Amino acid sequence: MQTFKTKAFARLANREGLEDAALCEAVRRAGQGLIDADLGGGVIKQRIARKGGGRSGGFRTIVLFRRGELAFFVYVFAKSHRQNLRRDELDAYRLLADEYLALDRAGIEAALAVGAIVEVRCDG
pTM for the full model? Predict the structure, then answer.
């Protein structure tokens, strides 16, 4: 499965100390059908643990997801800072999923070339 993070997500994840290995684990779980919340339209919410803690009190990530093919991490927030997305945010992520999940190899390469997305390397 190809896994990516947007430039904005990468900044947020860096600030929060989220490592790519944690993102890979979240995608692996989702690929096995262990999705924390299916928000519809190719948008899922996956929990990620804080270092030294569990997933329940950690971070929530918004992922544009097509099982077995593509995952784009687009947003991260701490559970302690907010509970859920607003309706307008969810609608925007569903529109974004339509765009990102329709990208072909050339589109992905172009997004990588301009720095809009960064590949997350997951071994195995």
Answer: 0.92
